[in-house]
Structure formats: structure tokens, C-alpha cells
Amino acid sequence: MKVIPRAEVADAAEQILIVPLTETHLEFYTKIAQTCSLKSNIDLKARAEPRKFSGGEFCPQFHLDKDEDLKGKTIYGIGSPGPFTNDQDLMYRTTLWATAAKECGADAFHLLLTDMPHARQDRGHLEEQTKKVRGKPNTIRHWAKQAYVSGIDSIITTHLHSDKIYPYFAEAYDVEDGRQILKNVSLECILADYILYGSSLGKFLDKGGEGIVIVGVDAGNRKFTDDLLSALYLPNVSKVNFDKIREDANDPNLITCRLLDHSNNFNGFEGKIVLFADDIMDTGGTMIKTLNYIFLNYAGADHGFGKPDESMLYFTHAVLAGNSHRDVQYKFMKNFPHIREMVTTNTRPYISDSQDFRFKRVSTIIRLAKLYGDVILKHHLGRDITKEYIEFSNAEEQHEFLKPPGRDPLYTLKRHSLHFMAKAPKKDNEIVLYDRD
User: Fold this and answer.
1) Is residue 422 very low, low, confident or very high in pLDDT (cuts 50, 70, 90)?
2) What is the mean pLDDT of residues 16-40?
3) Which residues are within 8 A (CB) of 407 and not within 5 positions of it... i.e. 6 or more apart?
4) Which of 3.30.1330.30, 3.90.1300.10, 3.40.50.1220, 3.40.50.2020 is the CATH number of 6-185?
């Protein structure tokens, strides 16, 4: 690893202008801007304001002096979906911002969407005639066309839901590979680094991690869990891959589950911790069924692999049923007392704002503002950001890159004061009651 010359970084920072796509989560966007601008005092709305007319119409504005334009500037629009900014609103806003930037002479307009909106809507009536998809649009393909027409030069996101999306951007932009336009930053090394250096799994890391079993809940998250296994650099961690678990149509107490395969060193769940890692948790249905199956909670269930002691759940994007996110948290905490940790990121920043009481005790938020600032700078400098944060030689090199000594780390952690790993609270003062009589 080598340090990029300071002068090169400073030149890049001077050419970049960060645009908040919405006013929601402005603090998060500001922290990203502070990293990639090399400045600590920034008012994003001073140069680019996500304005609305009195009637509610969105009309963004770059604040320019007379005869000023955006020539020489590369614009990075930043947005995060959530219950207060829905996907379709966010995506339409991006097209207006891109249009404004190009009309004002910007050299380029790039998007940083921390969680790619509509990524799960990658099939439509033209692709499948199944009951689930029949009559529906392929929303992500439609949006790829809109992005091209609006002048969006590239899109950066994290932990993309499916590789099926890339061909739609290749088609819309008339390029050979959609990865030239849609750039995914994968987070398996950050999760692995957290597990190795910041989590509560210390006792399970002994003996090469033989106390850990990584669970692939369906075919869709197999690659991420395989990559996580590699990034842990623990030879005795085992892994199992399931087909999607489904309840019987006539009896919810009966489920169908097919074990696709497992690593050669897998010898059962008994006495171990099972580690789930997926891109999204929405209602949590698949995760709930898988937990119930593995922990033998279904009537008459016996998969023959024994019962684990504990579980750790990770999901990058905390959708959590949108406005009902506290209900989803409550459901997991109430029904699965064996959960040792629930870990997510702030790609949807509202997860830090409203949490169920019991969720606070076991949840850790991996905060990524520094990472995103680093991503923007390196993208502008022409680095391949899809490979910059993965595939290290060993755990030590990985840790040094993500948390370099003497420099700001690329990720930080947020835990509530009630968290079981938080520092012990101060001892309560002795209560003394005074009577005025």
C-alpha cells in the first residue's frame, strides 16, 4: 500500500462539488463532503440547494454568481432512500439535479446512492410470465434509461442486490459492460474487519474460527457470504448454503428447506454461533424462517445438525419495512433471544434515529461516511473503486487499510449506551430525600 500524494488529492478535492439530493440526512451527506473536500466546515446548501416551490414541486438550484457556471467542476449527487424519502422521489430528483448540473456547464455528474433504489425490481413482464412478476414493469431497466437521458455519467452504490442489473445499464448507455456505469462497492472486508477486531465474537474466533458457521440463506446472497468467508482469513470457519426456505402452503408449521451444499469442514451447528450476512433486511421473513429452521423452532423439526448456541445477524441495508422499522426490530428481539449481535450500516441513516429498546442492547451501526468520502475521491482520481476495498493479502493488511494508524478510519461504530458492549455506566448517585419540615 502506498499513500496518494497530498497535492494530487487536494487538486481532486478542489474539482469536486457535493450535492445533497434531499435535505433528509443532511448531516450524513455533510460528513461525506468533509472527507472528500478536505474541509471541516461545510455548508452544502450554500452552493447547491434541494429547493421546493411553495406548492411542493421540487426545483433544485445551484447558487451561482452572475456569469458564473460549473465548468471545471465534477458534481457528485448523494442520496439515501428511507421512510422519509421514498425510492421514486429520490430517483426523480436525481434526474433534475443532473439536468441542472449539465445545463450549468458541469464537466460530469455522478451519483452516490448508498442503497440503490429499485434494485429488487429487476424483473418485469418481458422477463418472466410467472404469477409474481406478470404485469409488472422492470423498474430498474426503466430507470437506467432515464439516468442516461438525464446526463448521469455513472452511479456508485454499496452491496448491490443483484448482478442482473448490470446488463440494463449496458443496454441504456450502449456500453459493453454495465459495470462501466454502475459501480458497486462491496463491504465484505469491512464486515470481516468488524468481526475480527470490533465484535463480541472473541471466544468463537479461537482455533481458527471453528466455532463460527456462516449461513447463506438463499442463492442470492451466496457470493457475498463466500467473499465474507475469504475475508475472515480463519481456516476453520465453516459455511452452509440453503435454498430459500418456504412455509408449506397448507400448514405454516411445516416448512420446505433444501441444503444446497456446505464446506468440507462443516460438522454441524451444535455449540456454535451461526452468522447470517445479507444485503437487505426488509420484513425479515426469510431470515425469520431460516432462524426458526436452524434453531429447531418448528414442530417436529430436526435437520440433524444439532442446535447452535447463538446467532449474529448482519444486513447492509436496514429497510426494516420502512415506517414499521421498530416493529421489525421488536419482532426479532422478542422471538429470538439467542441473537448475540445485530449489525447493520447507515446506508439508510434513519436506522440510527429510532430503535426498539431491546434492539439497542445488541445492535451496532457501522457508519460509512468516511468510506464514501474516500470512494468519491478515488473515483475522481480514476481508481477502480469496485476493487479498492476488497481482496487483501491477509487480515492484518486489511485492517491497516481500513483503520490506518494515525489516520481517520474508513468506518466507525455507533452503539447505544444500553449496548451490552458499551462502557460500564457511572454508578448511580445515592438518592437522598429532604423534608422541609
Assistant:
1) confident
2) 93
3) none
4) 3.40.50.2020
